[in-house]
Design goal:
mainly beta, Substrate Binding Domain Of DNAk, Chain A, domain 1, five-stranded mixed sheet, five-stranded antiparallel sheet, 10 strands, 0% helix
Amino acid sequence: MSTIRTTPSNSLILVMDESVGKIPATMQNRLVAATDSCVAVGCRQMHDGPTEIHFDPAGGASPQGELVFEGDLHTPSRELSVCSVTNEKLVFASVKESRTRVRVFANHPSEPDCIYVIFGFN
């Protein structure tokens, strides 16, 4: 498991395969918005402090918080990343398939300071 602490621009992280990630056009005042290749997740406001992000293949972590997203993402390069909106790769991992199952958990419904991204299970 990889764990990072960050204060991403716009208080938003993107979970995607950078080679094809199509960012959602809007968040529509929700914590999570997704396309078939990208999940955008809201974070703690920058001025309130960092957000802790746990990035882990399935089976490794016991996620905390509520499940806020579950779905498959296109991962044709077989790499899944957590990126900032300025396209800074914060953490990444190789995945086995060209479609990867992703689950996202958050500890707050609007401004989480702890997010779990669990990936790669069937």
